Amino acid sequence: MRLLSRRMMGVIQITSKIKLFVLASIFVFTYSKHEEYAGWKSYYINTSTVEQVKKLNAIRTKLGLDFLSPAHVKREALVLAKPEQQEEFKNNLDHLGIKYRIHVDDIKSALDHDDEKKKNRTKAIARDSGDKMSYDDYQHLETIDAYMEYIAKEYPKTTTLVTAAQTFEGLPIRYMQISTTNFKDNSKPVIFIEGGMHAREWISPPTVTWVIKKLTEDVTEPDLLNYFDWILMPIANPDGYNFTFFGRRLWRKNRSMNFPNDNFCPGVDGNRNFNIAWNTVGTEEDPCSGIYAGNGPFSEIETQVVRNIIMEHISRIALYLSMHSFGSLILHPWSHNLTLSYNYDNLAKVGHAIANAFFEHGPDIFPPFIVGSTSELLYLCSGSSTDYGHHIGVPLAYTIELPGIAPNDDYTGFDMDPQYIKAVCESTWAGIVVGARKAKVLFRKGT
């Protein structure tokens, strides 16, 4: 329960638009500064055994490190380290015999370089009507909202734009319902896809807007439009996503505050806030941590919205996908313990089919997807959205860790080079098509 008074909450909501306007107006002066990242470094970590993965995750917990990409025996982790963490971090790695190399020697400089590249690229941001969505660059929140408004206006027979709630900072949480029967046929299975739960994972939202495109503007798989009802939420965390454009680029959480308990450190990790073994493993009680679980399960409006969607359609949801980045991984329950899911065989079978489609239709520079439960492939963590959805009855629930920084190229920033955005969207859609058709068969069988 929040400790803010209703009056204080009202003041925050009233002034939120003013704050956003101020942020936008000083954007040109502050966007490329990134002063808070001065002296930070990022490291590629090569864990060659399961034991090393476990030890690296223990170091992560001990030092409070920030992992952009998780550790796996077949993948290099990408780890951020503040100046005060670096010496102890490297000493620990040397002692354990874990190999590492520097990815970026000065994160501030790399982010400044990213900004220069953005300035030099031709901007393709939708204006006014929002009738175009570019996949040549990462889009602002307002552009994605405008695009959804345009689609709802242009395709009123099949689409409905839902504003489910307002965030802590007063931004709308929105999703699209796409259905040939206006969600009135309760015999139709539902597919729910959300992205942008973690603010900095910019490759996630375009994969969801691409699904909207493929079900409205460019329908090449009409069977998927006719057979399923779709719920598509490109940005589950609008406050955090907006903040990564106008504030801290590597911000992960939302932007809520719970005075005075949060010690003026805003934000909760939405993917640790669901009511499934909440705050028991793989979380932090420090509000300043990037994996802070909040002051209770479903303390955050963002996770409440996702929960409400799942609960409303629980008898019909055949497939739920939570889009994240990065690591080229398809993760299924459980993440909070090492037991096998009640639907493990189907989760694995469908997951491998999705992975094969991703790889077959994706850029050659990216590695094959790895499939498995979060706990067996990576680490234990509680309060995840897919664990929650699966626990209450969604038969097929996956966290998709999309491809990230392209290996062996000359791009050393923290986003995938925008030249690959469209290719990732196309390959992700190919995986969704396969996953949906597999889910259709299983839904008919009632498994």
Architecture overview:
This protein is α/β, with parallel strands linked by helices and 447 residues long. The protein folds into 2 domains: 36-116, Alpha-Beta Plaits (2-Layer Sandwich); 141-247 and 277-445, 3-Layer(aba) Sandwich (Aminopeptidase), CATH 3.40.630. Helix content is 39%, strand content 16%. It has helices at 6-25, 27-30, 50-63, 83-96, 107-120, 141-154, 204-216, 222-227, 238-246, 301-312, 344-361, 374-377, 385-391, 421-445; strands spanning 41-46, 66-69, 77-81, 99-104, 159-166, 172-178, 190-195, 229-233, 317-325, 329-332, 370-373, 396-402. The strands form 2 sheets. The chain has an 8-stranded mixed sheet with strand order 5-6-8-7-9-12-10-11, with helices on both faces. Strands 2-3-1-4 form a 4-stranded antiparallel sheet, covered by helices on one side. β2 and β3 (77-81) form a beta hairpin. The longest helix has 25 residues, at 421-445. The model is unreliable at 1-32, 122-130 and 407-411 (pLDDT under 50).
Give the CATH class of the largest domain: Alpha Beta
| General form | globular
Mind telling me which CATH architecture of the largest domain this is? 3-Layer(aba) Sandwich
State the assembly state of the protein chains.
single chain
What integer value in Å does the Rg equal? Answer: 21 Å
